[in-house]
Each structure stands twice: as structure tokens, then as C-alpha cells.
Design goal:
There is one protein chain. With 377 residues, the chain is an alpha/beta fold. It has two domains: 56 residues, no CATH class; 287 residues, Enolase-like C-terminal domain (TIM Barrel, Alpha-Beta Barrel), CATH 3.20.20.120. The chain is built from 14 helices and eleven strands. The strands form two sheets. Strands 1, 2, 3, 4, 5, 6, 7, 8 and 11 form a nine-stranded mixed beta sheet that branches. Helix 11 links the parallel strand 5 and strand 6. The protein is globular and about 55 Å long.
Length: 377
């Protein structure tokens, strides 16, 4: 089976961590796409009917006895998903912060992004300096608190704190600061705030008692989520670069644990800062909506000029196949975010969530020797 093929190579690739697992993740997606095309079914159908062959394996011993068939059959994609906008540490909040403007007609500040795309979900980065982080969050809250109808957010520690105690101190200050009262109430969870070298070495329950905490960068192997759970973590991130089977298995764990325990639920979040328009974006969106995730980190459209670097024919093909997900604006086909949401209806088609393919003939091989200062992996 497709899943069996992935697991057969797991000891040599996926078990070696995120870097080695990335290549395997790409192969897994290609095999799933080929299988779906051969069967004439969508990725959604292939997962729901378990055409991929997800089953028990020694590497996931904690799921022994779990019945995958009803779990997979119950998964249902949504027609849209909220795009969660990431506010980076250097991103301008208002026009006063934008010292140098690009002036390409696209939004450049947080205020402009909200006005242009209608976002209601946000991911807020902190940098490991308590005083600076509080000041930054106050500036962000001053903008978000003005959004009609409210908003929701996640806080991303991004491995910037050395230990849990530092994050506890930050969050207590957030809760004690009147200007951050609304923001504190609207944060759904805190994403891996501790450096990966320390994240799985110490208990995080002191922070989890204040706000749910999820693991992200430390999620290198299939056994990490159960290990993190034992330390007080309540969730884990889904990223197709980590392997879509890992996301499915972690979603199964959440379902199992939520049936077994009372209290705050275990969660699977959808994170990926820089995914670009095209196959990678579409396949990630198909995965997370099928797993029932309601919002997804999406900022790749801020780092490049849409599909402008691609041949015109390739842009036209993706727009024609997915007119709900893309639009032609400012001279290029680009992701369409309307009222803070991405439309997903066109992803349900034979194959792994795409009705168009890259222009393979236009691709250029990587140089054998990388330019100075560039790491090729």
C-alpha cells in the first residue's frame, strides 16, 4: 500500500528527523497523487475510504487497537478555511512603522493586510525578550482590538525562550496587562516557545495550566507527540513538509485521547509560513481541511509576487483549474483571500488536490556548487 511504502522507508528516512523526512514527505505526496489518479478519485475520497492503506505499524505502537476505518470515513472537508496571518517580529504594524515601502499596490502593514484581506485569525511571533515582546504585543493588540466582530490568535514562541519558566513569566505579564486583556482571551494556544534542544527535556504543565501549548519544531519523528503529551503539551502542528501521514496519525491520536480524557481537548494545528501558490499550497490545504482544522497559517503570498516568476501558461492553467483559490491581480495570478478565508471547493478532483501541473520544461536544475553563503540541502 501507499502507507506501507512510506513506513517501509521510515527507519532510513523519517526516523532521522525533519531534514531527512522532508524528501520522504515529497515522495509520499507523489505516490498518493499517482494512486488517486490511477483510481480516478480525489485525495479526500482516498483518505476517507482508506485507499492509502493506513494501518497499524510498530512505529506507532501507541495506536495499537485504534480502528482507523471509522475515523477516516468520518473526516469531511470544508468549503473554506480561515487564513491565519502571521505577524513577524519585523513586520510593520501601522504606516508609521513602515520606514521603507515597496509601493506595489499590495498591503504592507498589519493594518493594510486586515483591510485588504479581511483576516480574523492571526499568529503573533514573540522573540524571547519579555519587555520587548510585551511592547510588541501591545502595539499589535491596539490594531486587532479594533476589528469589528472580534478576532482570534495564536502565539508563536518560535523556540525563542530558553525554558518554560521564561514563557510563564511572559504570559503572566500578558494576563496582568490591561491593554492586552482582549488579546489574552483570544489566544487559542501557544506554539513551541522553547528551543528544540530543551522542549522535550522538561515538563510544560506550568504554562499549560495558563494556556494550551503545542509542539512544532521538535516534531521530528512519529513518537514525538506522545512524548510531548506526557510533558503537558496539548497539541502538535500539521505540515505537509513533515509528511502528511504524520498529520493523519496525529489527528487519530487527538481523536483517541479526546475520547479517553476530560478537560481541554488535544488539538492539531495547521502551520506553514512560506508555502507558495501551486501544488504545495493546494495539497497542504486539502490535508488540513480534511482533518477538520478550521484555520491555517498562510503567509507565502507576502514573500513573492504571486506566480509572477512562473510561465504565463502555467499561471493560466492553475487559475483556470482553481478559480476559487486564485485570482489575477496586480499583473500575476495569486492566492485569493476573501473575508479572511480561502475557498477550497476546486481541490476535490481526481488526484492530490490539483487540476493543473507545473510547467516542468521551464524548471532549471540547482547549481552543482551553491553560490557563496547559500546552503543547498
Amino acid at each position: 500500500t501507499a502507507f506501507g511504502h512510506s513506513m517501509a522507508h521510515y527507519p532510513a528516512l523519517g526516523a532521522r528527523g525533519l531534514e531527512a523526512g522532508f524528501g520522504a514527505a515529497l515522495v509520499d505526496k507523489a505516490i498518493a497523487d499517482a494512486l488517486c489518479r490511477a483510481l480516478g478519485v480525489s485525495f479526500f475520497d482516498a483518505v476517507q475510504r482508506n485507499r492509502l492503506g493506513v494501518a497499524h505499524h510498530p512505529a506507532i505502537g501507541d495506536l495499537a487497537g485504534f480502528d482507523f476505518a471509522p475515523f477516516l470515513a468520518a473526516l469531511q472537508p470544508a468549503p473554506t478555511i480561515a487564513a491565519r496571518h502571521t505577524v513577524g517580529l519585523l513586520d510593520p504594524i501601522s504606516a508609521d512603522d513602515a520606514a521603507t515601502r515597496v509601493n506595489d499596490g499590495l498591503p504592507e502593514t498589519l493594518e493594510e493586510v486586515i483591510a485588504a484581506y479581511g483576516h480574523r485569525w492571526f499568529k503573533l511571533k514573540v522573540g524571547g525578550d519579555l519587555a520587548a515582546d510585551l511592547e510588541r504585543l501591545r502595539a499589535i493588540a491596539a490594531v486587532l482590538d479594533r476589528i469589528p466582530g472580534g478576532y482570534a490568535a495564536t502565539l508563536d514562541g518560535n523556540e525563542q525562550y530558553a525554558d518554560i519558566d521564561g514563557v510563564v513569566a511572559l504570559w503572566r505579564k500578558v494576563m496582568e496587562t490591561p491593554a492586552l486583556a482582549q488579546l489574552a482571551a483570544r489566544v487559542a494556544f501557544i506554539e513551541q516557545p522553547v528551543k528544540r534542544a530543551n522542549a522535550l527535556a522538561a515538563d510544560c504543565r506550568a504554562l499549560a495550566a495558563l494556556k494550551p501549548v503545542i509542539i512544532d519544531e521538535s516534531d521530528g519523528t512519529l513518537d514525538v507527540f506522545p512524548r510531548a503529551r506526557a510533558l503537558g503539551y496539548a497539541g502538535v502542528s500539521s505540515k505537509t513538509c513533515k509528511g502528511f501521514y504524520k498529520s493523519i496519525l496525529n489527528a487519530a491520536r487527538c481523536a483517541l485521547w479526546n475520547r479517553q480524557t476530560q478537560g481541554a481537548p488535544y488539538v492539531l494545528s495547521a502551520e506553514d509560513l512560506t508555502l507558495q501558490a501551486g501544488l504545495a499550497l493546494q495539497q497542504d490545504l486539502a490535508l488540513v481541511t480534511l482533518l477538520g482544522i478550521k484555520h491555517v497559517e498562510r503567509n507565502g503570498h507576502h514573500y513573492v509576487n504571486g506566480m509572477a516568476a512562473l510561465p504565463q501558461g502555467e499561471q493560466d492553467a492553475f487559475l483556470a483549474a482553481h478559480p476559487d483559490l486564485y485570482e489575477r491581480r496586480h499583473g500575476a495570478v495569486r492566492v485569493a483571500i476573501r473575508d479572511g478565508r480561502l475557498a477550497l471547493g476546486s481541490l476535490e478532483r481526481p488526484g492530490f488536490a490539483t487540476g493543473a501541473e507545473p510547467d516542468w520544461s521551464s524548471m532549471q536544475p540547482l547549481p552543482a556548487v551553491a553560490p557563496q553563503g547559500v546552503l543547498v540541502t
